[in-house]
Amino acid sequence: MIAHLPWRLRSALLETICEERDPFTVMSALAQKCGVIRFVAQGDYGLIQSSSRDQTILRSYALEGTFAKSTNERLSWFFATRGGGGTYIDVGANIGLTTIAVAKNPLVHCIAIEPDPENFANLVANISANCPHGNVDMRQAAISDATGHLTLALSPDNLGDHRVRKESQANDPDGVGRRRISVEAVRLDSFAADIKVPLAVKIDTQGAEPFVIAGGSDVLSRADLLTIEFDPRLMRMAGGDPRMVVNFLTRHFSVGRMAFRDQEAQSEPAATSQIAEELLKAVEVGSDRPFYWFDITVAKRLDDLTPPLRNSTRASP
After folding, report:
1. CATH number at residue 180
2. What residues contact residue 263 under an 8 Å CB cut-off, 6+ apart?
3. Quick check: 180 and 152 in contact, CB under 8 A?
4. Residue 114: is it exposed, middle or buried by C-beta count within 10 angstroms (0-12/13-18/19+)?
5. Which of 10, 36, 139, 182 has the most CB atoms within 10 Å of its CB?
6. Taking the complete model, does pTM exceed 0.85, yes or no?
7. Count of domains observed in the chain
8. Average pLDDT over residues 22-26
């Protein structure tokens, strides 16, 4: 019926649809109909490509021209104030938007780790296009507590929400409709020989964080700065213990900041013991609550935690 409408009316209808949703979502839906599998967007970190199904990360970059701005500024500031050198490990690198920001500093050795083949292919392309210093090593693997293979449950439209599952969790009810693939698993401690301090690490693995820590405690205990996503529900679903993460942070880091979900502003610096109290409360109330997570940044020294952020606030749900 729409095909028989006058051209001007069809054009107005398309504009209305774009206003009610957003142009990227409409374009993504059309791409699936037309066999278009990849988009490229321009922003702060250069030309970035991803799947045309990527309704979260590439969509955000395309519409806003940036991604994880506070995290990227914090990591870049850390290395700049430490003399420029050192190592950055990105566990769950996705398509590279944080790695690229850090790799602009040619003195920093970056290690980007991503298990999903589609994300990894785009990561390689994006690093090649936007990191001219040759300072990024990439590894297609999931980081876990043992070597071998794991199941990766794929989100159809949020390519930052793929979830690692051990065999006992492979059929979790939250994963209904997700395609599953087998991916290589390695321990983070296997990268120990490649690390030069200062060391900063980002971990964003959709609930697999306890296993990342279990297989990477030697490397992570050497980190001067660590940013990690803390989602009690996803950790429980993956078969991990969020309290183990809290204990590790408290044992190896002295100060921290936290933000609820995707808030750009983080709380004022506080002792990790105080951060731990907040996280343990979150475990009690959030183990069954979807979309209830925190972004945590911890450091061994206060000086490594306090870049000139645009805003600072009390983190609360």
Report:
1. 3.40.50.150
2. 295, 313, 315
3. yes
4. buried
5. 139
6. yes
7. 1
8. 75
Q: List pLDDT tens digits, range 187-216.
A: 999 999 999 999 999 999 999 999 999 999
Q: Cα–chain-centroid distance for residue 279?
A: 19
Quote the distance between the C-alpha of residue 221 and its chain's center. Answer: 20
Provide the 10 A C-beta neighbour count for residue 276. Answer: 19
C-alpha angle 272/276/279, rounded to 5°?
135
pLDDT of residue 37: 86
Tell me the CA end-to-end span of the chain in Å, nearest whole number.
Answer: 46
* Residue 182: strand pairing partners: 151
Three-state DSSP string of the chain: CHHHCCHHHHHHHHHHHHHHCCHHHHHHHHHHHHCCCEEEEEECCEEEEEECCCCCHHHHHHHHCCCCHHHHHHHHHHHHHCCCCEEEEEECCCCCHHHHHHHCCCCEEEEEECCCHHHHHHHHHHHHHHCCCCCEEEECCEECCCCEEEEEEECCCCCCCCEEECHHHCCCHHHCCCEEEEEEEECHHHHHHHCCCCEEEEECCCCCHHHHHHCCHHHHHCCCEEEEEECHHHHHHCCCCHHHHHHHHHHHCCEEEEEECCCCCECCCEEHHHHHHHHHHHHHHHCCCCCCCEEEEEECCHHHCCCCCCCECCCCC
| Domain annotation covers residue 19 | no
Average pLDDT, the chain: 87
Q: How far is CA 146 from CA 101, 166, 184, 212, in A?
A: 30, 11, 10, 9
- Please give the Cα distance from 150 to 147 (Å, whole number): 9
pLDDT value of position 159: 83
Average pLDDT estimate for 245-268: 88
Q: Give me the pLDDT at residue 314, please.
A: 35
Whether 26 shows a pLDDT value over 80: the answer reads no
Tell me which residue range forms the domain holding 284. 68-304
Give a yes or no: residue 40 inside a domain. no
Angle at 238 between CA 234 and CA 241, to 5 degrees: 80
